[in-house]
Design a protein that fits this description.
It contains one helix and 35 strands. The chain is an all-beta fold. A hairpin with a 2-residue loop joins strand 5 and strand 6. The radius of gyration is 23 Å and the shape is globular.
Length: 478
């Protein structure tokens, strides 16, 4: 039987699609319950985002089976649309469209979760709006850039209820883009709000999810300069105030290794981040995005399972939770993976595109995933500029209960390259290897050791020739 490509991995949309800033929502419509994702659309290629929004959804029982519902909204003035949000109140779905690069927020309506959203009305909201419809029907909105705002909305879903506007419900960052004289108070160097407001209600608590900007070193995470690749959260018992520090949920800087001094080392090129958490069929997930290419204009939607717990002290824990005597005591970011919702690992006997790598580290130059835009199921996003010492990692693969005998790799190289496949760590046990030369594209190598079950897999590259580089396209096991 002909092999097929892995799909619905991480990124979970097709490799040709680029939807960052994804706000997940679970809606039941016409008797069917699905998770819908609303985000920006990186179609401009030379700047952030695009001039339309598309909607993707999957049944809550299978987060590998994503369907595109097409364009749901176009900017009124053909301007660039930044990050949106969608909520439902009653029988109507409301899309908060961020036109003119987020400087004008309009709310449009639809009777279906996939739109089209029509009759847009200008709102009182600002950059990166996030909206919460509370259990009692009251509606709260959060927005801002390098400083946050929050308010209750009137019944029109567009204007602010008098007397409810709040400034900086959480500490803000000290970024170079903000007015330091005006916003000198409330700065948090460790937990500063950057952008990407997403208010949620979780276990009876108000949870404010946002993009954090670290402005102090965090050695354990490999952060030694300003960094806003984190999705973080604060929590409160009240919707508009009283927020307390939560922690970090996810980070798009990849796997964290340790150097000889014990400091963290990032293994993927971090960049801006935006998303939220959603319970889907009894399991919580964080939806976020990563970078591809050499800039931030070809971002991709990512997903990881997360833990959620409520402590005896009323605190919410989100992310990878540490328990002591059955009680949550701490949390940290969940790992960034290639598998996403396929928690048992990607099927090693299917074609696996290099575009699912979650670890790109080492080498003379920074390797990167080359964005692809051709809309076909078998398109593969290659890793390019793999130079001497580079490592490309995939977490995780499922090899099953019987070991495969060989691996087939599609790869191109400018000079002779020694390629090794290693298990569980970049310096882990080698299970296969081959020598690649210019002019060849397909390489088959026997496995030198059996492998079963779920494992991380790392390709290591040795290209001693000066300036030489390789391109990895896809691989499979037999």
């Amino acid at each position: 039987m002909e092999k097929t490509f892995v799909r619905g991995a991480n990124p979970y949309m097709p490799l040709w699609e680029h939807v960052p800033d994804g706000e997940p929502r679970v809606f039941t419509h016409a008797g069917e319950t699905r998770v819908y994702v609303y985000g920006s659309h990186d179609t401009e290629r030379t700047q952030y985002c695009g001039r339309d929004y598309v909607v993707w959804s999957a049944p809550v029982t299978d987060l590998t089976d994503w369907t595109c519902h097409g364009v749901c909204y176009r900017a009124e003035d053909n301007s660039i649309l930044f990050a949106p949000d969608v909520v439902r109140k009653g029988d109507t779905y409301y899309l908060y469209a961020a036109e003119q690069q987020g400087s004008v927020i309009r709310v449009a309506r639809s009777k279906t979760p996939w739109g089209p959203f029509t009759d847009p009305v200008k709102t009182d909201l600002g950059f990166d709006p996030g909206v919460l419809v509370d259990d009692d029907g009251r509606v709260y909105a959060f927005w801002g850039f390098c400083g946050a705002w929050a308010a209750e909305l009137n019944g029109d879903m567009a204007t602010i209820r008098e007397g409810t506007l709040r400034r900086n419900p959480i500490g803000h960052c000290k970024a170079r883009w903000m007015n330091q004289e005006e916003d000198a108070s409330g700065i948090s160097l460790e937990d500063g709000f950057f952008e990407a407001s997403s208010p949620r209600k979780i276990l009876g608590k108000y949870v404010y999810i946002y993009s954090k900007r670290y402005e102090v070193p965090v050695p354990e995470l490999g952060v030694d300069s300003d960094n806003n690749g984190f999705l973080s959260y604060a929590w409160s018992d009240r919707p508009l105030e009283g927020y307390r520090k939560g922690g970090d949920i996810s980070f798009n800087g990849g796997e964290i290794l340790r150097d000889e001094a014990g400091r963290g080392v990032m293994t993927y090129r971090w960049g801006n981040n935006h998303g939220s958490v959603m319970e889907v069929n009894g399991q919580w997930y964080v939806f976020y995005h990563r970078q591809t290419g050499t800039d931030e204009y070809a971002r991709q939607a990512m997903i990881e399972p997360v833990d959620v717990a409520l402590g005896k002290d009323g605190r919410i824990y989100l992310g990878k939770i540490t328990y002591r005597d059955g009680e949550p005591v701490a949390s940290c970011p969940v790992e960034m993976t290639s598998q996403g919702a396929q928690v048992n690992g990607l099927d090693a006997r299917q074609w696996i595109s290099a575009g699912y790598a979650c670890h790109l580290h080492g080498g003379r130059e920074q390797a990167y995933i080359q964005p692809v835009y051709e809309q076909r199921e078998d398109v593969s996003a290659p890793i390019v500029r793999l130079t001497d010492g580079a490592v490309a990692g995939f977490r995780y693969l499922q090899f099953g209960c019987s070991s495969p005998r060989q691996v087939t790799v599609h790869l191109e190289t400018e000079a002779e390259a020694e390629v090794r496949l290693r298990l569980d760590a970049p310096d882990g046990k080698a299970i296969a290897g081959f020598t690649a030369g210019p002019g060849q594209r397909v390489f088959t190598a026997p496995l030198s050791a059996g492998v079963i079950g779920r494992h991380a897999l790392y390709f290591t590259f040795s290209l001693p020739a000066e300036g030489a580089a390789a391109t990895l396209d896809r691989f499979t096991f037999d």
